[in-house]
Design brief:
This protein is of the alpha/beta class. Helices cover 33% and strands 27% of the residues.
Amino acid sequence: MEKIRLGIVGYGNLGKGVEAAIKQNDDLELVAIFSRRPENSLKINSDCVEVVQANQAKDFKGRIDVMLLCGGSATDLPVQGPEFSAFFNTVDSFDTHTRIPEYFSRMDEIARKSGKTSAISIGWDPGLFSLNRVLGQAVLPEGKDYTFWGKGVSQGHSDAIRQIEGVRDAIQYTIPLSTAVERVRSGETPDLDTADKHLRECYVVVEEGADKDRIRNDIKTMPNYFAGYETCINFIAEKELREKHSGMPHGGFVIRSGKTGKNKENNQIMEFSLKLDSNPEFTSSVLVAYARAVYRLNKEGQTGAKTVFDIPISYLLNQSQKSLIKEIL
């Protein structure tokens, strides 16, 4: 069986997750891992896979069918996306929601010029949650969408706490408010913003002699992160943080609450949920599935940027249409 040849750009948590996910798919093969770090400093978990400086990736044109871009959305992907889509089919997890239209336009222009196919903003939100929001709106036009995130680690909010003077380390969990969830699941359609739906739970290790009252106030009043949210702050020892809060769980759910019937007398609830022990490993698995789809699209001559809305779901599996109809439909 001819395998789809893949490359990984970036070897952080997401890149390592992609490496592991590829091994679960018989039709996929990892060719190389590209990193800004020196080759001899990377200890990868694969045999017969090259480790290469990212600036040498162009030399692999023709040897890699799809490149999976595993950098961050803030600074990496806005540069790496356009750079790599000029030479390779790509998949990325760009998740800065407000900038997705701008990013899509740039990627679409470059990929079309190069004859490549680039799947952008692939993951679970944006990604799988986006698909379920569309499905809900299509099926229940009279209704409202509600997206809840958590319980899960927010890396950005955790980093924000670590910047406060006197904080040694910290982790922050985003947790859906049960009262809001129950209202939606009961058929209500309340107007809720993000702060009405979530609380923020913080576990903070402070420097010896640090002013905990000041730190607590600095966290709760931090604009764009905690101000306006119900925030619970727990001061704990560094050992407890390492032992109990070193994982990267996440998840959430999308709910569409709608009405049907002549007089809109019937409540209809659609819900899709995720409960993840490892956010990066699950996101990696989504990226890998879409790499297969990107390869197929490009073989068909479909070029440019694509989102989850543009890619047939049947292209994600290594099965024929006949098999899917017989075994899954």
